[in-house]
Amino acid sequence: DFQTLMGDSLKQVAELQTDAQSEIQQGITGGDLTLAESTIAVREADLALRLMMQIQGKLVATWNELKAMQV
Q1: Fewer Cβ within 10 Å of end Cβ, the chain: N or C?
Q2: In the prediction, which pLDDT does 11 show?
Q3: Is 0.85 topped by the overall pTM?
């Protein structure tokens, strides 16, 4: 259902954010990651977060339209 889909999506976004933070830390501490790999991880996490924010905005707008409809 929709609630499960949104919950799973939020979990994926959180995982991408955590992965990006981990890769940044590895890059700072001299891990085996390249700057490109760290940058890609950060951009993926940013894109996922922006997408979720867009979805949230659309859901709120839709909800407001539904509330404004006359029955």
Answers
A1: C
A2: 93
A3: no
